[in-house]
Amino acid sequence: MAFRRRLLGLSATAAGGLRRSLATAASHPPWAMMSVTVEAVGAPRVDVRLAEPPQVSELCFPQHLIKTRGSPDPASGVLQKLAGVVRAVSGDGLLLLSYVDLRFTAPNGAEQEPTGFDPAHVPIVTRFVCNPVTRELSRLPDSICDPMGDLRCDGHMGLVTGADRGHGQGPPDRFALAVLHGNMMIRFLSETGDWEIVEVSPCRLPLARRMDLCPEAHAVGGRLWWVDLTWGAISADPFSDRPELSFVQLPTRSVLPAGAQDEDLASYRRVGVSEGRLRYVEVSQEEPFLISSFVLDEEGGDWTLEHRVVPNKIWGPSMWIPLQMKGTTSIVLMDPLNANVVYLMLMSQIVIVDMEREEVIESCPYGSDSSCIPCVLPPWLGQSRIPSAGKKDVEKNKTSADVLVRSDGHYKR
C-alpha cells in the first residue's frame, strides 16, 4: 500500500494533462493497457505510444533487430511472418518481448490465404527486455533449449525483477526470466547473463491431478505465478539457488473438477496483480450473476473475498447496457493500482466498474483488435536503465531513448 500511495502521489503531476492523450518519456500515465500484439516495422528504433487507460498503448518494433533464418524465395510459395507479442510484464514497468520467425505455405503467393506451416522451417525465438518509457532494449541470448522446445516454453515465460536497494521502492538491479518444465525451471538471470536449467523443489498438491496452466505468468512479491483457472496457482522464486514450488488453490467454490473443459474460461476468470497483491476476479455464468473479487493473503495460503456485486444492479442507471446473461460480459483486466476497479468487455465496449462503490465509472469503445496486459509505469522509470545482462554491448545509439544492449511450454504435472 505504501508503494501504491507513493506511486500515485508522484505520478499525479506527470500524468496531469495527459487524459486521453499520448505520453512521452518525460511524462507518462501511472499505468498502461499495453496491446499484447507487437508489430514489426521497418523503423530504425522502437516506437511506443503510451496512452491513459482505457485507451490502448501500442508498441512497434524494428524488424532488423529480430533474428531470422533469412527470407524465403518469393517463388517458393512460402510466406514469412514475424510474430511479436508482449509476453510478460514485471511489476515495475519492464516488458518481455518475444518474436518468432514463422513460415507459412501459400502455393499461389501472398494473395492467397496460407494453407499451413512450412514443415521445412524451424522457428526461432528472439527475446528482448524493454523499458517502454525510455525505449531502451536488452536483447537476450538464445535459449539453451532446442528450437522447438524453446517455442513450446515461450508462451509461459515470465519476467520478474529484484532490488537490494530502496526496499523495493526504486529501480531494480536485476531481473530473471523463467518457465517451468516438469520438475525443472529454465531461467535466465541478468546477473550472470546466461540461461540455465535448475531443479525445483516440488510442492505437495492436495489432489493427484495435473495442472493446465494459462499462457501468462504474474510477477509479485519477488516470485512468478502460473495459474490453472480450474484449480489454483503455483509459484517459485527464480532468483533462488534451489527454487521451491508453492501451491494455492482457488477459492473453494471456484474449483472445477479435473479435466473440466471450457474454452471461454479465461474470458470470465482472471488472476492478476493489483496494489502489489495477487487477486482473482470472476464473473459467474449462472444466476444470480455476480462479479466476485478475492485477494491472496500475505502468506500466500488463502483467498479473502473483497467484493461481490450484482452487475444487473450496476447496469441499471446506464440504459444502453443490457441485463447480464451467460457469456455477455468478459474480464479485460484489473486496474493494477486500484483493487476496487475492474475493466470489463460488453458489446465491444470497455466498461470500467468500481466494485466498492458499485457503479460504472466509464464506458467507451474498445480501441484495439488485440488483447491487453496491464503495465505499471513508476515515476522513476524514465530515468532508470534495464539491469545489465552480461557485458556484450553491440549497439548504442546517440540518445538514451534508443539504447540497444546485447546480452547476447505448456507445463503439466
List strands and helices in order, with pairings.
Elements: H1 2-15, E1 22-23, E2 31-35, E3 37-41, E4 47-51, E5 56-62, E6 78-89, E7 95-105, E8 116-117, E9 125-130, E10 137-139, H2 147-154, E11 158-162, E12 174-181, E13 184-189, E14 194-199, E15 217-220, E16 223-228, E17 232-236, E18 246-249, H3 265-268, E19 269-274, E20 277-283, E21 291-296, E22 303-309, H4 311-315, E23 329-334, E24 341-346, E25 349-354, E26 359-365, E27 372-376, E28 395-396, E29 403-406
Parallel strand pairs: 2-5, 3-5, 10-29
Antiparallel strand pairs: 1-4, 2-27, 3-6, 4-5, 6-7, 7-8, 7-9, 9-10, 11-12, 12-13, 13-14, 15-16, 16-17, 17-18, 19-20, 20-21, 21-22, 23-24, 24-25, 25-26, 28-29
Tell me what you see in this structure.
The chain has 413 residues and is mostly beta strands. It has helices spanning 2-15, 147-154, 265-268, 311-315; strands at residues 22-23, 31-35, 37-41, 47-51, 56-62, 78-89, 95-105, 116-117, 125-130, 137-139, 158-162, 174-181, 184-189, 194-199, 217-220, 223-228, 232-236, 246-249, 269-274, 277-283, 291-296, 303-309, 329-334, 341-346, 349-354, 359-365, 372-376, 395-396, 403-406. The protein has 4 helices and 29 strands. It is globular, with a radius of gyration of 21 Å. Strands 1, 2, 3, 4, 5, 6, 7, 8, 9, 10, 27, 28 and 29 form a 13-stranded mixed beta sheet that branches. The protein has a 4-stranded antiparallel beta sheet with strand order 11-12-13-14, with no helix packed on it. Strands 15-16-17-18 form a 4-stranded antiparallel beta sheet, with no helix packed on it.
